[in-house]
Structures are given as C-alpha cells and as structure tokens.
Amino acid sequence: GGVERERKRKKERRKERGGREGRKDLTGIESMDQCRHTLEQHNWNIEAAVQDRLNEQEGVPSVFNPPPSRPLQVNTADHRIYSYVVSRPQPRGLLGWGYYLIMLPFRFTYYTILDIFRFALRFIRPDPRSRVTDPVGDIVSFMHSFEEKYGRAHPVFYQGTYSQALNDAKRELRFLLVYLHGDDHQDSDEFCRNTLCAPEVISLINTRMLFWACSTNKPEGYRVSQALRENTYPFLAMIMLKDRRMTVVGRLEGLIQPDDLINQLTFIMDANQTYLVSERLEREERNQTQVLRQQQDEAYLASLRADQEKERKKREERERKRRKEEEVQQQKLAEERRRRNLQEEKERKLECLPPEPSPDDPESVKIIFKLPNDSRVERRFHFSQSLTVIHDFLFSLKESPEKFQIEANFPRRVLPCIPSEEWPNPPTLQEAGLSHTEVLFVQDLTDE
Q1: pLDDT for res 121
Q2: Which fold, 364-444?
Q3: CA 99, CA 126: separation in Å to the nearest integer?
C-alpha cells in the first residue's frame, strides 16, 4: 500500500510539472531563467530554440535570425502535455512478494553503486555522448542494429537528424513520433519485438506520422534525451506544430502493449488534429493571399510596362518629329544658302561679262535665246568671244535655270560652252559656226 501511494504521488507531481515544462520541454535547459532567456531570444519559438541548441555541438550556424524590429510574441497559454506512464506489474501472491522483498536490498545496492560509479566517472572521463560529430551516422547505425536484432518489419525510420525531422514535420504539417531506445533497460527488448514491430502499430505509424528513433547510447540520441528528459524506457514523445510552434503534445513511458499504444496515439492525434487543420487552413489562406498579391503585382508590373512602352513610343515620336523638323530646317537653310550663293554667282558672272557690241559692228552676232519658260532674250556678242561668254550671260539671267545647255537648230547640236575633256577650251562664236543672226535654245538640266 505504501509503494502504491508513493507511485501515485510521483505521478501527480509529474502532471503538475507538465504545464511548467511545456515551454522548456524541447530546449533541454534545466534553469527556468535560462530557458526563458533562450526562448525570448527566439521570440518564444520553441522549434528555433531546439534547432539552435542542437546545432551548437554540430558546428552548424544558427538558421534562425529574426529581425530585431519584429515584436516579441509571448505565449501565455498553459500548454499541458498528455502523459501516459505504464507501471511495471506489482508482485502477486506470497511467493512474488517474498522474491521482491529478498531482491530489493540487492537491487537498491546495485543501482546505488552504479550511479555513484557513473557520477565519479564523469570527473575522470567526460561522457563521449556529449560530443555529436555524425548525427546522421548515429541514426543509420541504430537502424542497422535494430534490423539485425528485430528484423526489417518495423515502422519506417526517418533517416535524418532530429532537427531535420522537426523541420519536415513542421513543413508537412504532420505528427512526429520520437522513440528513445534504452539499450540497457529491461523492457526495451520486449517493447521493440512485440509492440513496435506489431503489424497494426507499423500501419498506424507509417500512414499517419513521421517516426524518428535513436538509441540514447548514441550522441544524437543522448542529446535528444537531454532535451526531452524521459523518466523511464521505453519512451515515446508526440510532437506537432501547435500555435505555430513545435510542441510536445504527448509522452508515453513504460512497457506499453500494441493495442494500448494504438489507442493512446490515436487519442493524442484526435485531441490535437484541430490544430493541424487550423494551421493548414491558415497556410492555404496565406498561400492564396500570396498568390493574389503576386497576381496583383504582376498586373501592376504589366500595366507599368505598358505605360512605359507608351511613354517610350511617345518619346520616340517626339524625337522623330524633332529630327524631321531639324532636317527640314537644315534643308531650308541649305536651300537658302544655295540660292544665295547662286545669286552671288549670277551677279559675279554679270559683272564679268564684256560689254555688248553695237549693231553697226560688222563682227557682232545677234543671238535670240528661247528660255525653258518660253520667254525670249536677245543680245549681241562678238565673233571672237568664247562660247563661255554666252553661257555666263544666260547664267546671270534671273529667268534662266540653274543648270542648262545651249542647243543650235541648224544643224541641231549642243554648243560646248563649258570646258570638258573634249573641249578643254570652248571655241569662239566664229569657230562654232554661228552666223550674224542666230536663234539658240536653252535646255533645262536642273532635274537631271
């Protein structure tokens, strides 16, 4: 009766401690002040605290670095953890109690000496499990030893570190079942062989949750054991995303039978399924909001690009008009300059013309010019003068074209009035065969 009352008091103390340990259950920090300080550094994000703490010995830098401007989100809710402990069966009958009382002093002495030896050994040689060098190797090694001892019919082990399992469970919104294997515990072998490898247990775990397992004799398992602080073996912890934090929602300790394990796991999942559903809906809403915002941004960018394209075309049109206006202006200026130069050239030619001979001069030639505009011009020249004089006279006229040639009618020929390769020095009027009275035709060559 005294032993049973002591067990009940311990069980009640564990339940009272469940509420306090909700926030520090995953961090593995014994001091409440240190636990609170660590969680405040991570905005009370339990998963981030666990991730950083487990990464410290792996040499992996922290992947959580929230901006300092983000306000602290303090969770004041009381997260109570469902705890289920299976006690070892009490001795029955006179023989059982007699054996129990006889072995009690020896068992007490053995465990006392063993604990003293382990405590003293820590000062002589540090626990090698405290240094995690190959966490994935620890998981793979445990898997191989488990299959060698219990066969390949077992739940699918998560082949990754505890931190990776937490991240995957959070990302996939799934339950994470953690199993810590105590190699030296007397119930571990029976639990693995008869409970964990039972077909109905395998089916439940494989279909409804992720399963991470490791031995506490391995550095990775020992480190997780320090974080979860199990009381006895076999030990199972159910972890899930609850209120946006990875939280332990159930602890199962002791030798539990397959049917009982299925019932307890189902009860824990059913009691917390609403949190996953709520988180899934929130994620879908956030995704839809993000998609909507992305669509709005794309529409805005498309409208912006269209406006920019319109503005670019307007600029190009304005630039084209400006260049065209400049080109027209340049052409006008060039035309004015050409006309001015042409007029100056006409005036110079006019000034250089020899005086017109008198009608009484026997060596004079009377020439009537028919211009392209059907007007007629008459002037006298001297037989000894070059045909160039005739060309200069016509060029100096206001009515004459800019470029022209002079043609005679009988016989029809073009007079070589301008120096050329054939006539470097144009002939005189007499050499050209002109008579005392001639009619010459001016042919316009400006457009040729």
Answers
A1: 58
A2: Ubiquitin-like (UB roll) (3.10.20)
A3: 38
- Closest-CA residue to 75 (of 35, 33, 22): 22
Gap between the Cα atoms of 223 and 162, Å rounded: 10
State how far the alpha carbon of 193 is from the alpha carbons of 78, 138, 151, 256, in Å. 37, 21, 9, 12
* Nearest to 439, CA basis, from 344, 365, 334, 330: 365
pLDDT in tens, 365-392: 999 999 988 899 999 999 999 999 999 9
Which residues are paired to 213 by β-bridges?
179
Rounded to 5 degrees, φ, ψ at 27 are -80, -25
Distance, in Å, from the CA atom of 316 to the CA atom of 318, rounded to the nearest integer, reads 5
Packed helices 219-228 and 46-56: angle between N→C axes, nearest 10 degrees:
140
Mean pLDDT value of segment 358-370:
90
201: which residues sit within 8 A by CB, 6+ positions away? 155, 195, 258, 261, 262
Among the listed residues 41, 57, 49, the one whose alpha carbon sits nearest the alpha carbon of residue 23: 49
Q: Which of 73-77, 93-97, 318-322, 395-399 comes out lowest in average pLDDT?
A: 73-77
| CA-based nearest residue to 135, from 170, 101, 174, 162 | 162
For 82-287, the fitting CATH number among 3.30.360.10, 3.40.30.10, 3.40.50.2300, 3.40.1260.10 is 3.40.30.10
Phi, psi of 245 (to 5 degrees): -135, 145
**How high is the mean pLDDT of the chain?**
81
Residue 7 has pLDDT above 90, yes or no: no
State the fold for domain 1-58: Helicase, Ruva Protein; domain 3 (1.10.8)
Q: Which of 47-56, 392-401, 422-431 has the lowest mean pLDDT?
A: 47-56
Q: 305 in the Ramachandran plot: left (φ > 0), alpha (ψ -120 to 50) or beta? A: alpha
pLDDT on residue 420: 84
Of 184, 166, 183, which Cα lies nearest the Cα of 175? 166
Structure tokens at 448: 């040729």
Residues 392 and 386 sit within 8 Å (Cβ to Cβ): no
Distance from C-alpha of 29 to C-alpha of 74, rounded to nearest angstrom = 19
